Amino acid sequence: MHESAGSAAPFRRHGVAAAPAALRRLRHDLTAWVLAAGVEPDRAQDIVLASYEALANVADHAYHGSGSGSVDLDAAIHADRIEVVITDHGQWRPPVPDPRPVSLRGRGLMLLRASADRADISSGEEGTVVTLAWDRDALRS
């Protein structure tokens, strides 16, 4: 990570439609921000992958795949970590079981935890907040 990364302005996008096209655009914007902040490309890919998985889960679980809700994304570089916070304003619903013997569904939380140094998920009446963090020491090459 470059020394200037600590001075990167926070990334904030609020009220983004929980629809595939809007979420893809948000992923591209987050990628550009992370790379401009000086994060190495491989680590930046981890950050964007975990963040996008959380965003996709919003559309699937918080708004029942309807795309009628919104999501907020806040990312910031702190002295000791990069943190991405994704907030929805919907109601979490349990995943529908996939009857196929080998399913690609249901691995989102595992992916979040494998890609981030910390992944905290908090659900309540007002929605769900996913906080992902990557230690800055681990970001340096």
Features:
single chain; 141 residues; alpha+beta; globular; disordered N terminus
Helix percent reads 25-40%
Tally of separate helices: 4
Terminal-residue CA separation: 7 Å
Q: Count the strands? A: 5
Outline type? globular
Q: List segments where confidence is low: pLDDT < 50 over at least 5 consecutive residues.
A: 1-5
- Output the radius of gyration: 15 Å
Determine the mean pLDDT: 82
Let me know the largest β-sheet.
Answer: 5 strands, antiparallel
Strand content: 25-35%
Secondary-structure content class: alpha+beta
Give a short overview.
By secondary structure, this protein is α+β, with helices and mostly antiparallel strands. The protein contains four helices and five strands. Strands 1-2-3-5-4 form a five-stranded antiparallel β-sheet.
